[in-house]
TrEMBL record, chains A, B:
Record InterPro entries: DenD, Epimerase_deHydtase, NAD(P)-bd_dom_sf
Keywords of this entry: Carbohydrate metabolism, NADP
TM segment ranges: none
Protein name from the UniProt record: NAD-dependent epimerase/dehydratase family protein
Record has DNA damage as a keyword: no
Length: 318, 318
């Protein structure tokens, strides 16, 4: 059995690959594919790393094999980039997803298609607390593309062309490494950079509420989403991944508690209307009950997000 | 100024063209386009009829002109057909819509893009009464394709690439002519055929609730949707068109009241699981308040649907 991870060069792809190598899931091959050649995530002869543009005609068909059992589709153009590069966003976030679904459908039925969607599908006039019954009215092209991919995967699952699982991820915090082009990137920067002795800019108001999950929890939940029985999802394959709601102020209070006043002082507020427009359209409070009922995990208080980052940052396991 | 109607050969396209010719909207050209050459809906030198497959590369670009002011995008593969012919459904209901939006975007901003969506976007576990805050979980490929088109048009409108208006039409009753491949086609057949002295088959249970609007109301509301200011829609361009909720039994009671026992007796119940699966997933009760607040119209009791049909059937205006 073969497992494919798209976006295999990214932080989540690399972390997921390592988790799969350690998991009880039996497989013969683990393929990491990305627009740039992914790093090899471990010393294991089941791994292969591949550079490919899956939005190109025929590329997805070439990738999906008779042995393919799981596709973890993580590849995406992130939110701020999809807003600036409209055509690229549709090409990668819609066309690639559709190409992969078509390739699975025409290969063999029952491939587990695990899709990383996001809370960015929500936007506009939201109720105080969102859940899976909340209407999807995205206020960004990225959110629109994710919402469309969700609908596609549900229809392909209903037709038994794939065995889809749509996991709406909250913002991941703390991401290691450098800032990326996601509008939410600052939510890791304002913790990571100060801890690493660098300055960070916060482009939104301190009272903005955000929904977060830690990398460990996200990876556990992606594996959970892949290994649940299809029937567990009932008639709709989309689940909001459990998140913790905090304000930016609470994140910085936590930073000061754990890393000290001096570290906290490295964060400067400088409003950015473009980022604010996207991030403030996302929900700030969530009812996690569908996901918890399915056995997904949720993080504890925000202090734990920071201690998880510090421990992994010092160990440099990734 | 030029107006384009896709699906111009269809019942709605022809009716809309006639209504536009009589309306106060000033224009220089009215183009009816369809996969088959549309009939000329009137003796007016502003009309042109065109055969084209708009899912083909470049066809939409050729259609949309510097003079284009309105696009009424009515063309679609209907529900039962999209369920049976999966690839054709996506090609027409998704690719054509996307091609038209791209052509408008690259022609000039502000083209009013009026889209005929449908209540088929709803499905699955619905609340007793639906409104625009009801989550969209379609149970057919047709409904999925309409939901995706809605998201596309909202995003293109948010970016000011088009001035979109998404009108979710209820089932139209009574359609003149012959049955089509829509799963809802029987809802006209069970009235139209008996009145015309023919037998009709009802494939669902008499207690199934359905949402209906008459042809006159639908056409008035499409014109209304086209002429409202974009700002009237607020942050989201999708509106449920007002509908009347009735059961199939109530429709037949009405038929008996207006056309007699003998006419009513021409309807035979013969369950069809495939049609039932699609139609029973659609909502049966609606809160019309958003649309009524915007000035859209709603029909009266179901008797009026039948008298409208009889009057127009005898006059044969179409």
């Amino acid at each position: 059995m073969q497992i494919i991870i798209t976006g295999g060069a990214g932080f989540l792809g690399q972390r997921l690959a390592k988790a799969l190598l350690k998991s009880s899931l039996a497989f013969d091959e683990l393929v990491l594919v990305d627009i740039v050649l992914p790093d090899n995530p471990g010393n294991d002869n089941r791994i292969s790393c591949l550079q490919a543009d899956l939005s190109k005609e025929g590329a997805a068909q070439k990738l999906i094999q008779p042995e393919t059992g799981f596709v973890f589709h993580l590849a995406a153009v992130v939110s701020s980039q999809a807003e600036k590069e409209f055509d690229l966003g549709w090409k990668v976030n819609l066309d690639t997803t559709r190409n992969l679904l078509e390739a699975c459908r025409h290969q063999h039925p029952g491939i587990r298609f695990v899709f990383a969607s996001g809370m960015a599908v929500y936007g506009g006039q939201l109720p105080p607390v969102i859940n899976e019954a909340t209407v999807v009215t995205p206020q960004s092209s990225y959110g629109t593309q994710k919402a469309i991919a969700e609908l596609l995967i549900n229809d392909y699952s209903r037709k038994n062309f794939v065995d889809g699982r749509v996991l709406r991820l909250p913002t991941i915090c703390v991401r290691p490494g450098r800032p990326n082009l996601a509008a939410s990137s600052f939510l890791s920067s304002i913790i990571r950079e100060p801890i690493n002795g660098e300055k960070a800019v916060c482009p939104v108001s301190p009272d903005l509420p955000v929904l977060l999950a830690s990398p460990d929890t996200i990876i556990e939940n992606i594996l959970k989403g892949a290994t649940l029985a299809g029937a567990d999802f009932g008639g709709w394959r989309t689940v909001n991944m459990p998140a913790v709601g905090v304000t930016v102020q609470e994140m910085l209070d936590s930073l000061e508690r754990i890393a000290g006043k001096e570290t906290r002082a490295r964060v400067e507020f400088r409003p950015d209307p473009a980022i604010n427009a996207i991030v403030s359209s996302w929900p700030g409070a969530i009812d996690n009950s569908r996901a918890l009922g399915l056995g997904f995990n949720v993080d504890g208080p925000f202090d734990g997000f920071i201690t998880q980052f510090i421990a992994q940052n010092e160990a440099k396991p990734d």
